[in-house]
Each structure stands twice: as structure tokens, then as C-alpha cells.
Amino acid sequence: MDEGTGHETAGKPGTSISLDTVVRFVDIAVDALAQAREEIDALNVFPVPDGDTGTNMYLTVVAARDALKAALTDTSDEPPLPLVAFARGALLGARGNSGVILSEMLGAVARRIGAADATEPNAQVIADALVQATAASYAAVGEPVEGTMLTVLRAASEAAVRRVAEPGARSGDVLTEAAAAAREALGHTPEQLEVLAMAGVVDAGGRGLSVILDSAETVITGHRPIPVTAPLGSHAIPVPLVPADDDLSEDGPAYEVMYLIDAPDPAAGDLRVRLGGLGDSVVVVGGDGLWNVHVHTDDVGAAIEAGLEVGRPHRIRVTHFAEQIAALGEPGATVAPLSGRCVVAVAAGPGLGELFAEAGAVVVLGSPTRRPSTGELLDAITGSGAREVVVLPNDEPTVRAALAAASTAEADHGARGLRVSVIPTHTQVQGLAAVAVHEPGRAFDQDVTEMTATARHVRHGAVTVAAKQAITTGGPCEAGDALGVVAGDFAVVGADLGDVAIQVLERLLAAGGELVTIVSGEDSDGLVDRARAWVEEIHPGVDVVVYDGGQERYPLLMSVE
Questions:
Q1: Pair 16, 120: CB distance under 8 Å
Q2: Looking at the DSSP assignment, which residues form a beta bridge with residue 476?
Q3: Inter-residue contact 434 to 423 (CB < 8 Å)
Q4: 523 three-state secondary structure
Q5: Which residues of 277-303 are buried (b: 16+ CB within 10 A; e: fewer)?
Q6: Is 413 left (phi over 0), alpha (psi -120 to 50) or beta?
């Protein structure tokens, strides 16, 4: 089995490594990390024993996968190149020290594959990609430490270079050698880091990277390598002593600070140096004006101010390690109990966000151009403090991220009684209908059943403008044509948005109904009044409710109940 047999290429025209191969790899890597996540979390003793390395690496790859698949299904006029989207997804979704470093590795690999020429042997491209990923990762870390995932990747890249230099080397041979070298290097990490030797474990980040390389070998060769360690089978941090003060190590920083920052590329090096003076575990990765920043520090304010000096920080996350270790259930630690029930809803516009918030939901903003990551949904679930959580993705591609967030949350907090249920709502109006019947006073399963049934029985539609020429269920369309969506399918093509909106309403009301909900979005001038007037004239017995949603791309969202 070899790559290059797919019908589409991973980067520019002529690239030989197929998108089919890339998609298979990322799917297998996500599944493998999901299975190994608890084991990797339990190995996590460096740089701090916060028990989340496996989770962070898993969520980073999930974010990359989701971005890749979203790019492949993007119907806009200028969809992103899949591998560019893959790298950006990893960058935006990276969590923790290990996740940020992994995002740089994945980005470097994606860039090399995307730049490959059709005449280059795939084995050479893969070896080059590993070399470039190694160089980029070492450069991104403020003070590289041996005995970590950096060491494991370097061993893999060196083995790949040796193998590709041999006559007749194929991509499967290169990846087999690289994955084997990574497993061997992983086994030696306790000899390089005293904290690993004391705890009797291999490096957690290196183990996660080995899982990823094993996944790549499986895709190319069909073989499943035997891991260097057997699963530990317990979510416990194997460290002999945890200090009783606010730090996880006696002389280490108390906080993890992460943020994205819009800044010119030359500023990244200066920021890395500045953060190095404020703490440790400094990683600054990215490029093209967008960077992901990570540091462990005691001075949270100064770490954020360092970013303000060079650009615009956003999506700032601060984790107090003492609280994190308490959440993991360390003996003697206390953590606030989970209680109550909440709904986490993804809103596609500010008005929709206000509607969900008024209904008592925790709102996560998202849109067709900027869908929430698994990490953001996980933060909303765990940050709610609720024992029972209902998630409304309100967008078909976001359902996958919601399911990953839910399973991760339950795995991490199941011992505390956390239950999470994802209702697969594909539209905003389905989510509005579901949250309208939410009743915290009834049993959790019954509440989920009622919300699910209500969402499923909503007949929904929308209008939008075609971004490019295409063939739809309603016939061929040209860029600029009005499109009517019925039950998720482009079923109507016309020249006027108002006419198309009425045709959509005709179809939705064909089987009757008592209530029409209309949600206005951007560029909806006059459409709402026209649609409401038509319903009131043709169906006088049907109530009409109008909301200002503010969503992109869809001037009107409509539903019938």
C-alpha cells in the first residue's frame, strides 16, 4: 500500500501525495490519540504534572482534522487550500505546551507536502517534512529540553533521512524507520530527563508523537506497530510528591498563559525572548501575522502585556495549575462540585447569541466562516460548572467537534458525575426550537428526548446567494443567483431573494404548521417584511415570529412548527 493513489492532491496541482491519504491519516491519528489519551495524560510529569498532555494533543489534531474537512466541503468562491486550512486549524486549536509544539510540527509537515512537486519521490517529501518539522519545533521553543517530544521527532527525522538515502527507498520504508526510531527514542527519554526517571515513565509528549507517527505508518503500510509502552489503564499522575503550595513544582511557575496574537512575523522572536524572562515552557508558533503563544509564569499580567507590546492578543486562556490538579482528583485536593444543568449553544450571529443567552444557554459564537473548535466547546462545557450539559451545535460540521468535546469532558470529569449529551441540530432554528422546550426541572434523559424530538420535527429553510457556478437539486446556478435551502438541500434557484424566500416558505408550509419563525441576517433589507406579509396573507391562521440574528451568508433563516 502506498500513497499517491487518490484522485485529489493535498496541495497545489501536481502534488503527488493525495488528499485521500491525508484524510485517512488524520482520521486514524484522531482515533489512536483518543484511545491513548488517558494513558498519555497519566504519563504527564514534565514540564508540569498537570495530567493533560494526551488531551491537549488529541484536541489539537481534532482541530486540524475539522479544519481540513471543512475546507474540503467549502462551497465559497475561494475555498482555502486543504493543507493550509489543516495547518491553520492546528494552530488555532492548539492547547497546552504539547499541543502548541505539535501544531508547529503539523504545520511544517503540511507546508512541505503542499509545496511538493509531482516529480519528487514521496519518500523524499516525507523525509524532508520530518526534518523541517524538527527544525521548526526546536526554533519555536524558548529553551529546548532533550528527553521530550522534540527529541523523539529528531530521532524520527534522522532515521527518515538515513532510509531515504538508500537505493529504492519507498515512503512506507521511510515512515516505518521513522516510527521505529521514535519508539526507541521514547524509551530512552527517562535517561535524559531526571523527572521522568524518578516517576518511572517515558515522556508524555513523546508518547503522543509516537502514536501519531505510528498512525502515519499504518496509513501507508497497513501495519499497526506495537507501542513502546503498554496502556497504564488509570487516569493518575505518577509523581511521588505534589507540593502543598500553589505550584505544581516547588520552584516552578503557578500559571499557564496562552493566547493567539495578531503580530508581524519579525516580532515573534522578540516576544519569545521577552516571555523567556517571565517564565519557562515558552513556545511561540505560527506565521503570516498569526501566532499561538504559550508560557508558564507567575506574572500573568506581564505575559499578556508582552503580547500587547507587539500586537493584538485574543482568545486569552489562563490556567492555575493548583486548581487544575485539584480537578484531576489528587488526594487531599478540593474542587467545587458540579451541580445543575445547562445548555451550550453555538450561535451564528450576535442576535442569535442574545436569544440563546436569554434562554439561559452558555453561548459559543461560530459561523460558516469561523466554526468553533473542539477546545472552545470543551471549555464551555467544563466551564459551565454544570453536572448535566446539553450541547446544541446548530451546524452540521460542528456536530463532529461537539461530540469530541463531549466525550473528552465526560472522560475527564466522569468521576465527578458529569453527563453531556449532544443533540445533532444542523441549523440555528432547530437550536432555537430545542432550547425553547428545555426544562431543567425534569429528568436529564427526558429533557434531552424532548429537545431532540422538537428539533427533529422543525421544518427548516434559508435563502442565500450562490458564490460560484454549481449544479444543485434545484438546477444549475451561476454566481450571484438566489438559492433557497430546504432541509439542508439547495432546492430552489432564482434571480430574486424575495421570490426564492416565498418559494421556500411554500414548501415548508405545504404540510401545514402553526408557527413560522424568521431570523434575519446580514443583507436582509426588505426580505423579512416581504416574507411575513406573504405568510399573513396566504396563511392567516399561522403565527409569525421574527428575530434579528445577524448571521453571515444567510439573509433569512426560516422554520415551521
A1: yes
A2: 471
A3: yes
A4: coil
A5: ebbbbbbbbbeeebbbbbbbbebbebb
A6: alpha
Same-domain pairing of 451 and 470: no
Q: Are 318 and 362 within one domain?
A: no
| Residues 390 and 488 placed together within one structural domain of the fold | no
Distance CA 311, CA 305 (A): 10
Q: Classify 321 as helix, strand or coil.
A: helix
User: What predicted TM-score, i.e. pTM, was given to this entire model?
Assistant: 0.70
Rounded-to-integer distance, Cα 280 and Cα 373, Å: 27
Residue 14 is predicted with a pLDDT of 35
Question: 302 and 197 in one domain?
Answer: no
Pinpoint the alpha helices (H) of 384-526.
396-413, 428-436, 444-457, 497-509
Q: 544 with 514: CB under 8 angstroms?
A: no
419-422 and 470-472 as β-strands: parallel, antiparallel, unpaired? unpaired
Segments in the chain below pLDDT 50: 1-15, 229-250, 330-333
For 204-252, the three-class secondary structure string (H helix, E strand, C coil) is HHHHHHHHHHHHHHHHHHCCCCCCCCCCCCCCCCCCCCCCCCCCCCCCC
pLDDT digits (tens, 9 = 90+) for 336-382: 678 889 999 999 999 999 999 999 999 999 887 788 888 889 889 98
**Which class for 532: exposed (0-12), middle (13-18), buried (19 or more C-beta within 10 A)?**
middle
Residue with cell 427533529: 456
Q: What is the domain extent for residue 522? A: 459-560
Give 356-360's long-range contacts (Cβ < 8 A, gap of 24+): 356/392, 356/431, 356/432, 356/435, 359/435, 359/436, 359/438, 360/435, 360/438
**How many structural domains comprise the chain?**
4
Residue 7 in domain: no
98 lies in the same domain as 115: yes
- Phi, psi angles (nearest 5°) of residue 442: -95, 170
- Could you read off the pLDDT of 271-287 as tens digits, one per residue? 999 998 898 888 898 88
Q: Given CA atoms 220, 184, 95, 106 in this order, what sign does their dihedral have? A: negative
Asked whether residue 394 falls in the same domain as residue 474, the answer is no
191-239 pLDDT tens trace: 998 888 888 889 999 999 999 999 999 998 887 766 554 443 333 334 3
One-letter amino acid of 2: D
Residue 237 falls within a domain, yes or no?
A: no
Do the beta carbons of residue 459 and residue 513 sit within 8 Å? yes
Chain length of the chain = 561
Q: Give the CATH number for residue 132.
A: 1.25.40.340
pLDDT of residue 60: 92
